[in-house]
Amino acid sequence: MLGPGKADLLQQIRETGSISAAGRAMGMSYKRAWSLVEEMNAAFREPLVQSARGGASGGGAQLTAMGEAVLVGYRRIEEIAAEAAGAEIAALAGFLRDMPGGK
C-alpha cells in the first residue's frame, strides 16, 4: 500500500504541485507516477492525491488532507524505525562498497 518510493512520490507531488514533475524528479515516467497515484488512491479510504487536468487552467496535483496525514504518519514511522535500529543500520552500511562521490 505504501513504501518509501510511494512516500517519496507523495512528497514530490506536495513540493512540485504536479504528478508529471514529481515523476521526472524521481526519474520515472508520467505513466508510472500516475499508476502509483492510482494504486494509492484506491488503497486508502479516501484519495491521497487530487489532480486537475492541464489546459487553460494549467492543471496540477495536490495532496488531500488524507494524503498529508498518511505522508506525515509514514515519515514518523521512518524516524522511529531509524532511531530503534540505528546500530543495525550502521552495521549494514559498513558492508557497502565505497562508491564514487561518497554515495
Automatic annotation (TrEMBL):
The HTH lysR-type domain, residue ranges: 9-68
GO molecular function, one term: DNA-binding transcription factor activity
Domain of life: Bacteria
InterPro entries documented for this protein: LysR_HTH_N, Molybdate_resp_trans_reg, WH-like_DNA-bd_sf, WH_DNA-bd_sf
Pfam families per the UniProt record, alphabetical: HTH_1
Stretch forming the signal peptide: none
PANTHER family: DNA-BINDING TRANSCRIPTIONAL DUAL REGULATOR MODE, TRANSCRIPTIONAL REGULATOR MODE
Entry protein name: ModE family transcriptional regulator
Species of origin: Pararhodobacter aggregans
Organism taxonomic ancestry: Bacteria, Pseudomonadati, Pseudomonadota, Alphaproteobacteria, Rhodobacterales
